[in-house]
Amino acid sequence: MPIQWNLSASEIEQKSFRIIEEEVKNTPLAMLPNPAWKIARRLIHTTADLHIADTLTFSCSPIQAGIDALMQARPIFCDSKMIRSGLSLQKLQTINPLYSEKHILCSISDSDVIQRAKQENRTRAICAVEKNKDKLNNAIILIGNAPLALAKICQYVLEEQVKPALIIGMPVGFVNVVEAKELLTSCAVPYISLLGRRGGSALAVTTLHAIMENILEK
Amino acid sequence: MPIQWNLSASEIEQKSFRIIEEEVKNTPLAMLPNPAWKIARRLIHTTADLHIADTLTFSCSPIQAGIDALMQARPIFCDSKMIRSGLSLQKLQTINPLYSEKHILCSISDSDVIQRAKQENRTRAICAVEKNKDKLNNAIILIGNAPLALAKICQYVLEEQVKPALIIGMPVGFVNVVEAKELLTSCAVPYISLLGRRGGSALAVTTLHAIMENILEK
Known about the structure:
Two copies of one chain form a homodimer.
Chain A: H1 9-23, H2 34-47, E1 56-59, H3 62-71, E2 76-78, H4 81-86, H5 89-95, E3 104-105, H6 111-120, H7 124-131, E4 140-143, H8 147-160, E5 166-169, H9 177-185, E6 191-194, H10 201-216
Parallel strand pairs in A: 2-3, 2-4, 4-5, 5-6
Antiparallel strand pairs in A: 1-6
């Protein structure tokens, strides 16, 4: 097929969604209720992998919890700079004009975090969680990279009664990732996860954007 | 397996690489020469998908071209803010201390680009390429999102003798993506691509980081 030069971004998105819907129509994904399907569709759209959403897991009404938290302009903690730069502040502000850069908590490159991780020979991701511990209650948590950041947050939930509004737990990789997600499944808080090794910053971001769609398209 | 809390970032990386090597040892990927294998390994590490590198394609000695361009502190054009924030300026500066934020060209959120895309009902990604046209000669190009950005650059190469130092062509998605990558394969410039629909900002970034490894580990 020749390149279709004259499509706008929204036309490309709509066309992509139609292709995805056509290609998954005979799979279990097609049975998802609409708000969950919006997330699965965006995960597929972001990766072009028709199987990426096969292990998508929801617990404790996380979509509604996310909608409520966004409408109250709750802070958003993220474990990577890629998540921070991928998040649409414009969309956040459409949902609640109070949202500003300050609401997006990302300490992974703070000099004190870098120094502490080096001194203690631990990961920057854990130190960044520890630095923000007192801001995690009622926050939206986006983990797309670091399993130990997710594990640390689960520890706070399980042992110290920290209660995030929503955890999007999608770290990626071969070490500690499956284990951190298993720990998440024992937490009685709203969460959305991709069980197994798969995940990524783009996937965590797109999941929150899909939740926003549920507000913006109403 | 319990969470392994006391691993440093580099220990986690080395352990992940050993797992990946073990799991692909009887596949064609294991036959790749070392500099190419470093890229395949990082693509797998970034996605936790053992098949992500199956369509990895190299043309015109792109790894050496990338090394040369990095050592000369050539500018790096990227099509998304996620790529810009994922790129390690620190690693770039280790290779050539001349590297600064100014060398990373990303116009996707410039107000003139946004305005022009809206007026002309085209994508911001194409308008961002057009804005930087005179900076693409000898530049390193990273495309991890927008197929039309890649297609536009290919058009400049094929029709206007623009000569990037290296194109990392990894847009992702269902519309124009396969076609843009096919156009790339007709360009006689150094490129690295993932043929098919798969790609992403994290994949484009990690490919450049893998090329840097070839310099930093010497």
